[in-house]
Amino acid sequence: MKFDIARQPLVPAFLTLAALAVVAMWNAGGPAVSMAVQAGHAAGTVDIGRNAAGALAVSSPGELLAQFQAAHPVWARWIAGLLMLFTGMSVGRLTVRYNLYSVGTCLAIPLYGAIACGLAVGGDCLTTFAASALLALATKNFCRSYCNGFGFDAIFRASLYIGLLPLVATAAAPLLILLPLAVMLFRRTLREVAVAVAGLLLPALTLCYVNWAAGGEFLAQVAEPGSAFIAGTPLSLFLSTPVQNLVLPGAVFLLDLTALLFFLSDIYALGTKPRLIFIFNISALLLTAAALCGPAATPATVALAAVPSAVLLPFMFVRIHRAIALPLYLLFSSKHSTNGSICHFVPKCAIAYGRLKSFNCIFENEQQ
């Protein structure tokens, strides 16, 4: 029996994702929740000051999520876990539906869970996984819009999700560039572009209208995130983060670069639609890296890279030898099952890999 982790069926992939979600939400308690509560109280104090000034009369979606997590941390963890399951299954369904890897595999599902758990280091887990779910939904609907006829419904939904993304996470504003990129890649008509622009502006205009109806300034809900996005210094996230916390994001981006090289070597062996979907996700990954370099980036923003990485990395896993793919997969999967650094769980991965190889050898001898 040959155990190939790269060609993973649906049931083990879903069970791995569910286990990672449970462990991640369990570890989200304690000090992280206390920090989130303090951040929620601080945000509420800032909101009171803004309301007194008369500019902002309602809270933004990101502030509402932070306040909900501060008031109900247990419910927030449950919702964040469900959002993680939903996002992982959406990413996996996208890869299987369009046959991106030329083999039947659901590897993107557990890879999303492993990368998201490892990169989501902030206390605001609800905002983190809500933003990841919006990015996954936008990616899915942009891919759906690439069809022979008109794709008004799909491109409107995708633009709506992209328009909501900066209102949930201010640092994700560079991802708005995905709309013109998708229009050019998927060759949409001018009528579809008009519908997409309407979907992109609808969340911001609705929030501005509600804020104006409540007594605030009309453009305050757009001006305030814009000021927060440009305030501060670039690369502040990397300068303020300890070096040991940058090991896993650096390893993920290094593997993404390796998968990109595999994609470029086989780019003409793919169909037109899978090729354009990969180019779109590579662009989303680059825009996420640009968002991380911005002044408004937070530790939770790093988890946005899990969606394009989960689509791109299986392209590498299905093309490398299983003796290399299995330890890499175990390395990612065991990141959140230990509290130490990588040096603590590398030996555990090696032991697990050795036991699995021994089991395979015994099974093959019994078959012979």
Helix-strand blueprint:
Blueprint: H1 10-27, H2 31-53, H3 61-71, H4 73-97, H5 108-119, H6 125-144, H7 152-168, H8 178-185, H9 190-213, H10 220-230, H11 236-240, H12 247-265, H13 272-292, H14 306-317, H15 322-333, H16 342-367
Give your account of this protein's structure.
The protein is mainly alpha-helical. It has 16 helices and no strands. Helix 3 crosses helix 4. The longest helix has 26 residues. The protein is globular and about 65 Å long.
Attribute tags:
368 residues; mainly alpha; 0% strand; single chain
**Largest sheet report:** none
Rg, Å, rounded: 21 Å
Q: What is the tally of helical segments?
A: 16
* Proportion in helices: over 70%
Number of strands: 0
- The averaged pLDDT comes out at 81
Short description:
72% of the residues lie in helices and 0% in strands. The protein has 368 residues and is mainly α.
